[in-house]
Structure of Phosphomannomutase/phosphoglucomutase:
Amino acid sequence: MPDLSQIIKAYDVRGVVPDQLDEELVALLGAAFAEITDARPLVVGHDMRPSSPDLAASFARGAAARGADVTLIGLCSTDQLYFASGLLDRPGAMFTASHNPARYNGIKLCRAGAAPVGQDTGLGEIRALVERWLRDGLPPSAAAPGTVGARDVLADYAAHLRTLVDLTGIRPLRLVVDAGNGMGGHTVPSVLAGLPVDLDPLYFELDGTFPNHEANPLDPANLVDLQHRVRETGADLGLAFDGDADRCFVVDERGEPVSPSAITALVASRELAKHGGGTVIHNCITSRSVPEVVREAGGTPVRTRVGHSFIKEEMAEHGAIFGGEHSAHYYFRDFWNADTGMLAALHVLAALGEQDGPLSRLVAAYDRYAASGEINSLVDDQPGRAAAVEAAYAERDDVTLDHLDGLTVTAPDWWFNLRPSNTEPLLRLNVEARSAATCATVRDEVLAIVRA
């Protein structure tokens, strides 16, 4: 019997194909998803990985056998699947392992209207039901078998995004996009069709073996080709998408990466102007610039834990108009509170095209502090090393401590957050300060304790 604890994570399903995840197990997951969510109609999409089409079809068969009517939307980005879930008002399943190597695959699940499914919102129940079926056998379904049909929603998805950001009046822009052989190569041409954008495509060929570089723009090594192309061609900016194209990273006209926190602040200011104010969600390791800009723009910032399920919960609870994370996930009320890097990219294009200056000058107003980036330390005792750091700062009068997500220590001119990884023996450190020198000093102080 497979160990489902190794593949059913806090937010999704992820494993090696076929060693951990095969068509038989996926069919059971489809059946359990239909049972737990009572999903009589549901929608299923998949990315470009070699194993994705067959796994998606097996999931559909399993769900249909329990009475669900399944609509297959074929190749799509994760946010395109969320669009279909919102448009059709039905639960959804997206087959992707994002930026993981080709031997991996996985499933991101949502309820109707793109509402998240995580460990505490259905995924734990799905795992328990599949484990019971693996042990005792699959009982007959009380419902008549459902149907499996197909529908292409790419054009609808692209048209919907263009209704949310007006780009018709922007100046012509030269844009390089690195799709990393992922789903951005499928969605970007349709979304940008007819807009005043001269598109220079890099690695748009759909190839789940990732022959050019890993489709993970969070790693600076995977931005090198994009940066070179932007500098070489004199483009106005560059965009890089991850494998399932739900995250978008930006480089300016110099080829320099733009902080996702700066993009969060820029998009937040535009969404606040569009909606006449509102609440903006940000996680606890986005830049201090984000809540500052939100307040300056007449909005209300709300700080939350790292992770899309927490962001989406806060979005729903506060009726927020927008949310952003340091990892380049961007969430929109106008997109069923789901995350879409493509919509954030359209905001960047619109903001740049509505004025004459370069992107570097535009984002400077939203990038006010020096940051360390996320630094990982391999440790034998996560709680012990974190406690040692807390003890070192607990008696200081010039700082405050909180435990919203790991440990955050805040001083007038700097702050840091230290969080344990949920899946590896790592402590993750993020530092921000008013000056690069102070940032480096605090970083080194904390790392000296963590790595002692």
